[in-house]
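Morning run. Coffee first, then this:
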Amino acid sequence: MVTRVLILAGGSGPRRAELNHAWPGWDEALEFIIAADAGALLAEPLGLRLDLVVGDGDSLGDSALAELGRSGVAIDRSPADKDASDTELALIAAAERGATDVIVLGAFGGRVDHHFANVWILAHPALAGRTVTVLDGRTRVRLLSAAEHGAGRAPAGLDLIDRVGDLVTLLPFDGPASGVTTRGLRWPLVEATLATGFSRGLSNEIIGPSGQRPRVELGGGRLLVFETTLLGSQP
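And here it is:
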């Protein structure tokens, strides 16, 4: 059983310096590192040692897989004709090992449909009750689900990074998100309902120290929470 797992997907890899600057602590206490096929190529530039490679191997190829195997990395190869993406297989592998906290790198870049699929997969049933965070050098994405808390309990909530000027976007997922309340944002929401198809939750902003950490809470439904840092965007 492991607690904190890192997954390397096959998209564009952020640089370690960017991740350290934007999301300090992202690599703390990692217990297991899984690559989804070509995600294995992200490990060396980030200074990471792989434990497992999953997927059909079509991007890495036989020789690269064999070399990884000789170096002690476990290989779980799947058929090329399959119903799940390599990233989905990696997330399932993390869940099967008991991970409660999963970080995903390399989910963005490349094809737009892959980009969307790697965000949509946060709703996978195997991930229910687990904290799953998709990161790149500028963006953090998490799915907040009120269903996991149940009726009569405190609202589901996520703390946000306390960095003035960072942007926060809240998008309802597969239906309206109700009871949305924010703290520490320029345009506050109080028990609001965000409806699918509207952009009301787009581009809010962290306003700075108020004695309480910026936070979003949710009473009903599910909500995608995007945080975008502007660090390094100024010349």
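Residues 141-228 form a domain with the Rossmann fold fold (CATH 3.40.50.10240). Good start to the day.
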